Recover the amino acids of this structure.
């Protein structure tokens, strides 16, 4: 193997010059000759019977090519929306979902008709002319009320709103833990719905070749091969006739994994009308109709001894499924199996309940289940620490799974590969100056100022996923493919089944290949996002899997190339293969490095005359990597905030994050992933909340003015550092880092806020911790009327 | 979404703008900075039949001091108010408020005339105009600020009436405007203004009702010697703010009191 030079190097992302100079190739940058534009007519109601649709005016409008409703797609789009079977619950109801509603619309934004016109504005104008008579039905909004027997139903034909109900571990299993408890703390923890809000909204451009019967779909997507599988199937086209191309993707955060109604309808219309069809999602459509994340309530109880020894946990997850199951929605139940976090527990009982409501479906969103788990366990540890009067860090240390215990089988039977939780925590404490902070906090409290310190010693499972553990990944094997081609003149093209929507794969994967093959980095090109290139199937990018699974497939394929090149080099050097040394991209006979053959020379030879007896031509290899286990990154985050008790405002003072994702390919890319991830955690903690009118189910946050995403100004400096604990699971020793920041951050912030206001007797703060909410909570905790403008501390607005 | 179709004309003088507005009739609208109008049109909440673009009108772009008054042309942008020495010397609170409107994009295009004409409950200048007894001068008449902000998005402007100028008194004594918001570019959840004019306090509030509010009760309390803290207790007297996504009515009333106290204290500091 070549001496490692590039792996670990902090080099700039090669995709950035293109992306930051306006040369990215996003969906709306692409146009096809003769294309028409689609505008969807959507239900304005959360729940309504569709009585009558009158298309007369819309069809007669200028520039309109066609107006379609559900019946026009009969025979064009077959089957219902795919959902993966995550587990076998005691009870499960999966309402059929078609890409376009016919009898009943079950969420605001569900498609009821679509207009095709020559221009975007003509399509928008005509969409307003489609007359739909609705009979408005009661909407199901609140999760708990939805479970009451007399609740209206999310679909009129349902017996109840229970999407699933599954007890993973029964309550009796923790009877002894709770029986021997000296202290039990209980909490209800809310996880509000979040809109993924990628900078680039979704979009589909489809073209059907009526002669070759080939369909090409350009779309903004995280896993083009799955789309080819789903859409090809629904349109009765062989996968070989369907090409899905996804070039630059302006963010996804999980919301561009599952297929969407438009992904079926736009290609179907391209086939029906014989013209390319383009649809670009508006921002309001994105907030309203792109799957949401979170939307959960947790009821948790923790049993412990007074000295802080954790004994047992019991939790129930209520998950707002929306009107239909998200394709990978069930994955979010992994919050239950991750609820134990970084700690020893005698036992954990868990139940997950999926609830159907009249809202857009929820599906994985950055972290998907793991942020919820971390939030829950880290929150409960602080809750317990407060109850027994122990420093939250001491409580964590007392219960940590120790470095010597790995591989460690946790309560749900998953094997944690490696870790050193104490080490990252100690480093974070020293960077943050933890002991000083506690002193400062005490001083400031004396002066009526409320500083809060929050810790999150997070762990994560990622790198989905081993086929042997398909049960943990919603029932699908999520292995990965790669092809490495060395061309006769030595340039290298690498095809990966993962797809970048901001992760920097063009850079990091090239670093791996350049090192493994010993060729210059500039000579290696990474290709992804086109189902006509590379191996026959790819699994896409999500679940922090790309490096630990896709990178490994690339590494393996590269090694296969080296193995073959070595055989050929031995022949060229007239030596036995065992005597060949591969060093810095060159092959030589042991002891005589001056007579070497570079990889490029060997490649050229591989396509020419004079190969050894029995050797096939070419220098390329395909590999599929099925990881033996998941990988488990971890770290320690410390947030420091000051709360103005008079207004409920939260001001950041400091944020320290020490994370461990095993070996690092490119520290700069890791930092970028952490920054973005942490900001999303802050954002959930303080700002974002998809709000619906409870009575009508109408979305109240349909624009970026109302749906609050913070800007750079609202974000504090983030001090990053790391520890390195390689995983034994793969040869590169790497774990994922794409979701880590989000998984860790929301609870660090909320723990800090709760700590700040704990002198008022507050033990829990929910998200988003808006000033209004916090002020009200402080006011109630103080038990005084809020009419006094003089109360509280001196912090200034 | 993109706006519905509309006609479009550029005017280079007030005279021409008036004529165009008359010609296009009731459903036409003036286009100034477009930072309130265009978003509404994109969401199709506003569908004017025609836009009269007044941006080329040079005669509406000036900041001067005349007859002891600060005169600001309707097309003066936030960024100009923010940076103008004339404003900083004669009415510094206006420059400070301008500095807190929206973000760079908004401040580079949004105009003072647009803010007045739009009469958003969360607009910041209307509060200053109200407490300072400013005048809004149009191509037809002069409006006292206290008679101008009738209701949310409602002014006495007629369809062919163009805001040309806003006339403020000169006031460079103690002052403070506190705009309470979540994100830098957000509108005020509540804003509180305190300005000393001729030895007396003028106190005003933003976004605690459909129109800006002048807190005469606070002003009177201060005039009769109450401490800022005691006076500010009256800031919510008679207020009936509506709840929104950002704040409950109670919270807005609470903020009115807290921010008023802080504004007076900080102005005096
Ligand atoms: C993200 C964002 C944040 C903002 N934050 C704030 C804030 O914090 N505080 C604040 O005060 N504003 C804020 N604004 C609004 C901004 O100041 C607008 O620019 C302003 O409200 C309207 O001014 P305009 O010149 O853009 O007017 P336009 O949008 O062009 O017009 C607004 C309305 O006024 C009418 N109009 C405009 N000029 C005249 C005139 N001379 N005569 C008659 N009618 C006229 C138009 O016909 C239209 O009905 C924000 C805007 C955005 C987009």
């Amino acid at each position: 193997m070549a001496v490692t030079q590039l792996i670990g190097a902090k080099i700039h992302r090669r995709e950035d010059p293109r992306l930051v100079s306006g040369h990215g190739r996003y969906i709306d940058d692409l146009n096809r000759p003769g294309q028409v534009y689609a505008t969807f007519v959507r239900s304005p109601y959360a729940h309504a019977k569709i009585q009558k649709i009158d298309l007369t005016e819309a069809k007669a409008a200028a520039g309109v090519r066609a107006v379609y409703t559900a019946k026009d797609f009969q025979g064009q789009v077959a089957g219902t929306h795919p959902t993966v079977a995550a587990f076998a619950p005691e009870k499960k109801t999966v309402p059929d979902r078609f890409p376009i509603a016919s009898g009943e619309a079950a969420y605001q934004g569900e498609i009821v008709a679509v207009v095709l016109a020559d221009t975007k504005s003509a399509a928008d104008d005509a969409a307003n002319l489609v007359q739909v008579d609705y009979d408005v039905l009661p909407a199901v909004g609140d999760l708990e009320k939805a479970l009451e027997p007399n609740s209206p139903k999310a679909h009129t034909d349902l017996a109840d709103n229970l999407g699933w109900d599954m007890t993973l571990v029964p309550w009796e299993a923790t009877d002894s833990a709770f029986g021997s408890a000296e202290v039990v703390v209980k909490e209800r923890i809310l996880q509000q719905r979040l809109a993924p809000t990628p900078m680039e909204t979704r979009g589909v451009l489809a073209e059907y070749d009526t002669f070759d019967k080939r369909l090409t779909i350009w779309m903004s997507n995280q896993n083009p091969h799955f789309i080819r599988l789903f859409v090809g199937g629904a349109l009765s086209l062989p996968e070989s006739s369907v090409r899905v191309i996804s070039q630059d993707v302006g963010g996804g955060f999980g919301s561009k994994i599952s297929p969407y109604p438009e992904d079926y309808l736009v290609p179907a219309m391209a086939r029906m009308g014989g013209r390319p069809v383009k649809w670009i999602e508006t921002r309001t459509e994105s907030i309203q109709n792109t799957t949401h994340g979170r939307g959960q309530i947790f009821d948790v109880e923790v049993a412990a001894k007074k000295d802080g020894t954790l004994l047992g946990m019991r939790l129930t997850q209520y998950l707002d499924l929306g009107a239909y199951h998200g394709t990978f929605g069930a994955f979010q139940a992994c919050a239950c199996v991750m609820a134990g976090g970084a700690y020893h527990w005698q036992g954990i009982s868990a139940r997950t309940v999926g609830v159907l409501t009249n809202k857009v479906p929820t599906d994985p969103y950055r972290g998907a289940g793991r942020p919820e788990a971390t939030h829950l366990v880290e929150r409960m540890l602080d809750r317990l620490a407060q109850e027994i009067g122990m420093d939250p860090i001491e409580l964590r240390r007392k219960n940590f799974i120790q470095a010597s215990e790995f591989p460690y089988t946790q309560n749900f039977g998953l094997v944690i590969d490696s870790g050193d939780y104490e080490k990252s925590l100690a480093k974070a404490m020293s960077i943050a100056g933890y002991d000083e902070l506690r002193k400062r906090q005490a001083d400031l409290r004396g002066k009526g100022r409320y500083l809060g310190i929050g810790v999150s010693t997070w762990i994560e499972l990622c790198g989905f996923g081993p086929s042997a553990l398909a049960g943990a990944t919603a029932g699908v094997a999520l292995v990965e493919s790669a092809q490495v081609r060395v061309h006769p003149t030595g340039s290298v093209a690498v095809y990966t089944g993962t797809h970048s929507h901001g992760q920097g794969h063009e850079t990091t994967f090239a670093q791996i290949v350049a090192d493994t093959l010993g060729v210059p980095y500039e000579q290696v090109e990474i290709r992804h996002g086109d189902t006509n290139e590379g191996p026959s199937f790819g699994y896409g990018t999500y679940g922090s899997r790309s490096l630990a699974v896709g990178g490994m497939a690339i590494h393996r394929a590269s090694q296969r190339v080296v193995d073959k090149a070595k055989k050929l080099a031995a022949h060229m050097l007239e030596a036995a293969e065992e005597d060949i040394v591969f060093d810095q991209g060159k092959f030589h006979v042991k002891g005589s490095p001056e007579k070497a053959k570079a990889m490029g020379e060997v490649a050229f030879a591989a396509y020419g005359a004079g190969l050894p007896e029995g050797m096939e031509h070419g220098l390329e290899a395909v590999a599929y990597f099925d990881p033996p286990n998941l990988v488990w990154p971890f770290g320690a985050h410390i947030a420091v905030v000051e709360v103005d008790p008079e207004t409920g405002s939260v001001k950041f003072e400091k944020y320290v994050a020490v994370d461990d994702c095993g070996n690092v390919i490119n520290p700069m890319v890791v930092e970028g992933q952490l920054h973005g991830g942490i900001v999303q955690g802050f954002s959930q903690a303080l700002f974002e909340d998809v709000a619906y009118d409870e009575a009508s189910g109408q979305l109240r946050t349909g624009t970026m003015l109302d749906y609050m995403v913070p800007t750079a100004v609202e974000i504090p400096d983030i001090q990053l550092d790391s520890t390195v604990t390689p995983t034994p699971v793969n040869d590169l020793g790497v774990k994922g880092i794409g979701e880590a920041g989000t998984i860790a951050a929301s609870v660090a912030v909320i723990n800090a806020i709760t700590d700040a206001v704990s002198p008022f007797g507050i033990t829990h703060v929910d998200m988003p911790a808006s000033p209004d909410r916090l002020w009200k909570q402080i006011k109630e905790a103080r038990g005084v009327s809020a009419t006094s403008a003089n109360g509280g501390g001196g912090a200034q607005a | 979404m993109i706006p519905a179709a509309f006609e479009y004309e550029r005017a280079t003088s007030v005279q021409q703008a008036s004529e165009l507005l008359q010609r296009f009739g009731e459903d036409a609208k003036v286009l100034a900075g477009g930072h309130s109008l265009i978003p509404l049109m994109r969401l199709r909440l506003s569908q004017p039949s025609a836009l009269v673009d007044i941006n080329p009108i040079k005669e509406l772009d000036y900041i001067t001091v005349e007859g002891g008054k600060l005169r600001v042309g309707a097309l003066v942008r936030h960024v100009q108010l923010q940076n103008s020495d004339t404003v900083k010397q004669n009415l510094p609170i206006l420059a400070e408020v301008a500095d807190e409107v929206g973000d760079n994009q908004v401040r580079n295009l949004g105009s003072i005339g647009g803010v007045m004409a739009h009469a958003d409950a969360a607009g910041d200048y209307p509060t200053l105009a109200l407490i300072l007894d400013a005048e809004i001068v149009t191509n037809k008449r002069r409006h006292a600020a206290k008679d101008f902000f009738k209701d949310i998005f409602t002014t006495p402007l007629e369809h062919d009436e163009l805001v040309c100028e806003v006339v403020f008194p000169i006031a460079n004594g103690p002052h403070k405007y506190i705009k309470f918001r979540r994100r830098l570019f957000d509108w005020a959840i509540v804003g509180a203004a305190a300005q000393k004019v001729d030895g007396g306090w003028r106190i005003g509030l933003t976004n605690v009702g459909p129109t800006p509010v002048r807190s005469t009760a606070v002003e009177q309390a201060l005039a009769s010697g109450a401490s800022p803290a005691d006076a500010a207790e009256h800031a919510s007297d008679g207020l009936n703010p509506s709840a929104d996504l950002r704040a409950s009515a109670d919270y807005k009333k609470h903020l009115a009191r807290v921010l008023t106290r802080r504004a007076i204290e900080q102005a005096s500091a």
Chain A has 19 helices and 29 strands.
